[in-house]
Amino acid sequence: MLLAPTAAAAAESSDLWSQLFVFLLATFIGLGVIRRVSRLLHTPLMSLTNAISAIAVVGAILVAGPDYPPGIRLLGAIAVFASMTNIVSGFLITQRMLKMFKTETRAGEVTKP
Amino acid sequence: MIGHLVQLSYLVATALFVFALHWMNTPTTARRAVIAGVAGMALAVLATWIQPEVVHHLWIVIAVVLGFAVGVPLSRVPLTAVPQRTALSHAFGGLAAGLVGTAKFYLWHGEGSAHLTAFRTVAIIAEVLLGFLTFTGSLMAAGKLQEVKWIPQRPVTYPGQNITNIALLLLAVGLGIAIVTQPGAAWAPAAFAGIITLALLFGVLLIIPIGGADMPTVIAILNSYAGLAAVAMGFVLDNKLLITAGALDGSSGLILAIIMCKAMNRSFTNVLFGAFGQVQQAKGGGEDKVYKPETIEGGAQVLEQATNVVIIPGYGMAVAQAQHKVRELYDQLKKRGIAVKFAIHPVAGRMPGHMNVLLAEADIPYTDLVEMDEINPDMPQVDVALVVGANDVVNPAARSDKSSPIYGMPIIDADRARTVFAIKRSKNPGFAGIDNELYFSDRTWMLFGDAKNVIGELVKQLSGGSGMH
Description:
Strand order of the largest sheet of chain B: 3-2-1-4-5-6
Structural class of chain A: mainly alpha
Distance between the termini of chain A: 66 Å
Oligomer: heterodimer
Helix content of chain B: 55-70%
Shape of chain B: elongated
Largest sheet of chain B: 6 strands, parallel
């Protein structure tokens, strides 16, 4: 490790910086976009972002799938399960809630499908 | 080649996620948001799964199937249970991040510490800390919201609480620093396990002093943590999709938390470290204040003669599941040509936007749901303000009484309406344990009883009066 080539170290540190740039910019985009979300929709927004942040499933698959020791893969598989639960329930309940937001359709009268 | 394909898919998925959030702007475009989100997620999962390094599929398939088996029922909970469902999903998010971080650490430690560069190790420790504290913290929050028996509902406080919490956190950070300096050491796995334990414990201790009225803020903060845990995972795995999607989630939680804090005139630290609730025992003993009860018949008559009515819902409406009865009342009033609006306080209920969703479920047009700042200037012209299960958000003490713990919190000015009806289950004070002067005002009449029953009776009176029965 003492002999680690400086080129590799430089590559790693440039990765680090590009990752931090991505994080910073994505946060600003997030702040800009979320600020304009209608207050009516804050509950569905939360379930939608729940589903989106279950993107952790990507990392979980990359731990559960490769040829790693079974113990490691098991942790990954549990993480896949947890994220998948969020993806499925998050998108479905968001959809369900959004369907309820109507303008002047009065229930009690015949509602069109 | 496949590497480029994967990166391209990730890039498209990122764009789709940004669009999804953008389309949440208005209810009319919001349904597109779900489609974009699902498309982005499907693309990301497929692109990851087809990578050549993923060779074991059975467990992943089982996990996906189980995810569907649990996820589908979780999406069908009654809307009054949405706050606890949301908290539970933050717990799952935190768990996933924590487990991936743990797996990666032990894997890389086992392969010799060459992989554990300082940056990665810091990221792993951040991921595991955030992930596991979000996990237990959100489970506690979900338990409180669900009113699970063995989790105390009232805030639990003890002397030295904040010092204990901060000491635990510092201890975990100290262990982290030790691991970063010597990631290959034989004691590193044990120290890592120590961090996990401390994070799990910290999550519990962070939530026990928090009361129901602060839940909207806390849920938003946990949302943000779950997002940040995904960001940390992105740093660990060098995966920019995880970083962007996590950052979007993190910023969403942050904005919601800021909105909630502003709506309560409190700071983050105050919500997290200043348990609310057991103040003000002395007050209310001195003067003998009396409620003026009103009968259903009387209430219905006054409502009938109004030209405009504002309904102010609160958590009590959710508890009593009264939203459908409220719609019947809305229909009865509308039929008589009375203008009806709903005044929604940002922290009414137990999570951001809670009231809007419940009223939308009851088929009330969202165009009649009005925000606090919009309705307040009109309140003096309102004939009847009907308070359904709201308490602190209409307490005038927030404007006038400097000694009140809610002083400075923006409220809906129900007390400025010409007549106020307040539906209240019992004569006890609200969650924050504070007396509400609104109930003793000379313009206020109380309708005691369960919100659903009281409104049901009002509807009966009104429909009886129109000669239908």
